[in-house]
């Protein structure tokens, strides 16, 4: 039962993280693709940081920031009864931050590659920015949206360092599959560790293979190939 509960929690974290990241990635990717704000390079660097920082560094600063012993963590706990350290909520927040570039960057790159004519025609017809984004631009970058969702999902189910730092190892709350693998290897229980590891491997392989196949089908339907 522990195996199935751990996998259920892993998929729940990955699913919630992906669903929350999708609108964030759309609006942030749109901003980074088209904004002329001088602060844009700084925001883009912040988006890229989770890709290059060691997970333990990101996890450490999240742990310090949201600890109840610090101002922000104490404020959230006292006024909102929200504990973000060693909790499911904190695990979701850390996963969102850590997987943000996997959602945002494909969307930003795809929007940047679109012809400016699409926006110009839409504005000429009297459509506003929100309508143009959702009904003109996004339908033309479906592969990027799918790629962002899939890579965010598989990245979330495989993350370890940030999960360990901010979530710990609490059964039925924060003990996801990557933590379980570490635990079972430490206990020399290689059979169960293999069960967790192969399950993650198979799921990630199938999802990534599917995204490449669907992307190829989309390109063929658009007459690119």
From TrEMBL:
The chain crosses the membrane at residues 12-33, 45-64, 84-104, 144-166, 196-214. GO terms for molecular function: molybdate ion transmembrane transporter activity. It comes from the Bacteria. This is Molybdenum transport system permease. PROSITE patterns: ABC_TM1. One of its GO terms (cellular component) is plasma membrane. Keywords: Cell membrane, Membrane, Molybdenum, Transmembrane, Transmembrane helix, Transport. The keyword Transport applies. InterPro entries: MetI-like (IPR000515), MetI-like_sf (IPR035906), ModB_ABC (IPR011867). Signal peptide: none annotated. Residues 7-213 form the ABC transmembrane type-1 domain. Pfam families: BPD_transp_1.
């Amino acid at each position: 039962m522990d195996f199935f509960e751990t996998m259920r929690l892993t998929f729940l974290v990955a699913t919630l993280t992906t669903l929350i990241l999708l609108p964030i990635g759309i609006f942030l990717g749109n901003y980074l693709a088209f904004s002329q704000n001088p602060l844009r390079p700084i925001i883009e660097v912040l988006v890229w940081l989770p890709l290059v920082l060691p997970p333990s560094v990101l996890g450490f600063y999240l742990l310090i920031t949201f600890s109840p012993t610090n101002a922000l963590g104490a404020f959230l706990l006292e006024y909102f009864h929200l504990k973000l350290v060693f909790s499911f909520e904190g695990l979701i927040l850390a996963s969102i931050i850590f997987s943000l570039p996997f959602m945002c960057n494909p969307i930003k790159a795809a929007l940047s590659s679109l012809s400016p004519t699409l926006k110009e025609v839409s504005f000429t017809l009297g459509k506003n920015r929100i309508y143009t984004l959702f009904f003109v631009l996004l339908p033309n970058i479906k592969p990027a949206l799918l790629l962002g969702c899939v890579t965010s999902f598989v990245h979330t189910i495989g993350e370890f360092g940030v999960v360990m730092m901010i979530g710990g190892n609490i059964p039925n709350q924060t003990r996801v599959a990557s933590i379980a693998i570490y635990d079972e290897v430490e206990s020399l229980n290689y059979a169960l560790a293999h069960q967790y590891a192969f399950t993650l491997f198979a799921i990630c392989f199938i999802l990534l293979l599917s995204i490449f196949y669907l992307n190829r089908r989309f390109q063929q339907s658009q007459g690119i190939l």
